[in-house]
Design brief:
The chain has about 575 residues and is mostly beta strands. It folds into three domains: about 30-205, Nuclear Transport Factor 2, Chain: A, CATH 3.10.450; about 245-470, Integrin alpha, N-terminal (Methylamine Dehydrogenase, Chain H); about 475-585, no CATH class. It is built from seven helices and 33 strands. Strands 1, 2, 3, 4, 5, 6, 7 and 8 form an eight-stranded mixed sheet that branches. Strands 13, 14, 15, 16 and 17 form a five-stranded antiparallel sheet that branches. A hairpin with a 2-residue loop joins β15 and β16.
């Protein structure tokens, strides 16, 4: 079982399971009558989750076959078939809205109060104005995050994300991302049509410069996998077990001023892509003799102060009540492996401690980097009746190795206050309170995060009521930066945004307010915590700044993409795709 085999999609199925434990059930309701703009959700609606979700699926399929397919194919008759004869809506044209200053992109922000009401012909005209300059519509999607069904089953209200994208003949690309509300009716042929459509928020971004190009193979960054190997990996993916077994690390391996790349796959490959300084990479092996020692990711850091980095991996060996990890170091120009450099006490019976993340930092101020290892799960994790997907405490133990010099370490997590067995996925050393020592952010899957306050000398205490720790989540990425040059640090956390989860939580009439609030946070997506100007307290600005919807997000990074002095946020996301297009991805 991989380190993410316990993961469940935080969508309808997962949220329904959570709600069932709290007695959520169906009730009778009705949709309000036609509303003037802006559209408002109905007061009463069907709350039977199965009925509502089944109908929502039919609505999405119907609109995909008509409205979305029509726009994608430039077939305006097909697109029009998704609208009722008395259709009215507010939808922006390419030049509507207000320009957002940016050195690279042409951005227009749309507000509903600035838009005119259109009939069917008017909507089709503005859609054509957007997409007909494009060679093709390569991105067209409709994802509902709220769906309220009328009791009779023939009408409904939906809030959705509508996305369009394409490039012109000069390869200049445009994307349109809108939040829309719509009133829907069911036609005599069971097709669903849009009667009212209202854009409540959104933007249009045009990049006049050619887009990024994939030059991976051209510069030599490839694994040379055979077709048979790829098919074998796909067969494993089709079983529903996520392949979270590989990673990339960017390092200056030979200190020539050029960034090199280390690529790893657990117990399979460890490859160094050495930057040749001319825009290409030379493939070389890492000095790892035994493939069983290869972890998902290496830590590359100078641990003994000799000016040369060591290689630290998280693969563990076990014997009785002890476990250990090794360090690769350089002596007289040769790599030497120290197999038991990081030894620690291990609970009896634990033989698979899957550590997901390592970080180095000087926690006790002695000038030597110590090592924190985030434990994800063991062979005992995930047992029925014990595992709790919103507050799990049956993960692996986190470890803190204190550096005593000359590559001698002792494991002192418990002695220094770092306790708990959550599913730790990421971690970040950072001085949260500005007192000059390194505190620790512990990002956890299936539960709350932890901020560990360094009390000085490397002793820690958990800040139980810190804003970063109050809500449950599935944290899988963390990045820290002063992104807006305000002089204050911000922390961005990757989680999972779920359209289905949003829909189901709204229908959970018998769930308590505290649990509902937790579920809403769980499905809301990524978070951006910054200090407020008034009192310096941390607060989540992710939704307000529009950076929460990152899909099923993994790693994230603040960096200055366009060299304008402030930092963008790059988020990796997605799932492992099933070979069968009709089967769900994982």
């Amino acid at each position: 079982m991989s380190c993410s085999s316990l993961r469940v999609r935080i969508g309808a199925a997962a949220v329904i399971a959570i709600l069932a434990a709290f007695g959520a059930g169906p009730s009778d309701a009705q949709v309000a009558g036609p509303a003037a703009f802006p559209l408002e959700p109905p007061v009463r609606y069907v709350t039977d989750v199965d009925v509502s979700e089944e109908t929502q699926s039919a609505v999405a399929g119907s609109l995909k076959q008509t409205f979305i397919a029509g726009v994608r194919r430039f077939d305006w008759e097909l697109a029009a078939s998704a609208l009722t004869g008395d259709f009215q809506g507010r939808f922006p044209g390419p030049t509507d809205g207000r320009a957002v200053p940016d050195d690279l992109l042409d951005i227009r922000r749309y507000r509903p109060e600035e838009l005119a009401v259109l009939d069917e012909d008017g909507l089709l005209a503005v859609l054509r104005a957007h997409v007909e300059p494009w060679v093709a519509v390569d991105r067209a999607s409709w994802h509902a995050f709220e769906f309220l069904l009328a009791p009779g089953g023939n009408a409904g209200f939906v809030r959705s994300h509508l996305q369009l994208g394409g490039a012109d003949p000069q390869r200049a690309r445009t994307v349109i991302e809108l939040t829309v509300a719509a009133e829907l009716v069911k036609s005599e042929r069971d097709a669903w049509r849009i009667r009212r459509l209202d854009v409540t928020d959104g933007f249009r971004a045009h990049n006049p410069a050619p887009p990024f190009q994939d030059i991976t193979d051209a510069v030599g960054l490839h694994f040379n996998r055979s077709p048979e190997n790829l098919q074998l990996r796909q067969a494993v993916a089709d079983t529903g077990m996520s392949l979270i077994d590989s990673a990339l690390s960017v390092v200056d391996w030979n200190r020539d001023g050029h960034w090199d790349i280390i690529a790893t796959e657990v117990a399979r490959h460890s490859i160094l892509f050495l930057n040749d300084g001319r825009g290409g990479f030379i493939r070389e092996p890492l000095p790892i003799g035994d493939s069983q020692l290869i972890p998902s990711q290496y830590l590359f850091v100078d641990l003994d102060g000799d000016g040369l980095e060591e290689i630290v991996g998280s693969r563990m060996a076990y014997r009785d009540s002890e476990a250990w990890m090794g360090i690769h170091t350089r002596r007289d120009g040769e790599w030497v492996y120290l197999p038991r450099a990081l030894a620690f006490d291990n609970p009896p019976g634990v033989r698979r401690n899957e550590a997901q993340f390592m970080a180095a930092g000087d926690v006790n101020g002695d000038g030597r980097p110590d090592i924190f290892l985030g434990g994800y799960q063991t062979n005992r994790s995930g047992s029925p009746g014990v595992f709790n997907r919103v507050d799990a405490n049956d993960g692996a133990d986190n470890l803190l190795f204190i550096n005593h010099g000359e590559l001698r370490f002792t494991e002192e997590s418990d002695a220094r206050g770092l306790t708990g067995t959550r599913y730790t996925y990421v971690a970040q050393f950072f001085d949260f309170d500005g007192d000059g020592d390194l505190d620790l952010f512990e990002g956890n899957d299936f539960g709350r995060n932890v901020v560990w306050d360094n009390l000085g000398g490397g002793a820690f205490r958990a800040l139980d009521d810190h804003p970063l720790t109050r809500d449950t989540g599935n944290t899988m990425g963390v990045t820290v930066a002063d992104w807006d040059n305000s002089g204050e640090w911000s922390i961005y956390l990757s989680n999972m945004y779920s359209h289905a989860g949003h829909r189901v939580v709204r229908l959970s009439g018998s769930v308590g307010e505290e649990m509902r609030a937790q579920l809403e946070v769980l499905t809301r997506g990524n978070q951006l915590f910054s200090r407020t100007a008034d009192d310096g307290a941390w607060g989540d600005q992710g939704v307000a700044l529009g950076v929460n919807e990152g899909g099923w997000a993994w790693g994230s990074l603040f960096y200055d993409l366009d060299n304008d002095g402030d930092k963008e946020i790059f988020v990796t996301n997605g799932n492992t795709s099933h070979e069968d297009p009709e089967a769900p991805d994982f």
